[in-house]
Amino acid sequence: MALSWKARRRWALFALVVALPLYIVVAVTVVTLFERPHFLLELLIYVVLGILWAFPLKKLFMGISQPDPDAPRQD
């Protein structure tokens, strides 16, 4: 079932405002559970985790900055 443009826009806003900060807190908490790794390894972990969150949400964010395609045209 495909989401409407409005629903995708709302879910994208939820993902950026609620889910992403929670993801950041979880990622930092998990990294701090381990003994302090080398600086470059820690940086690599944060870079990978910083990119990894976007792949599952890519379809959600596609086209939400465009005008609503289902809205009536104003000519």
UniProtKB/TrEMBL annotation:
The chain crosses the membrane at residues 12-33, 39-57. Keywords: Membrane, Transmembrane, Transmembrane helix. InterPro entries: DUF2842 (IPR021265). It comes from the Bacteria. This is DUF2842 domain-containing protein. It comes from Roseinatronobacter bogoriensis subsp. barguzinensis.
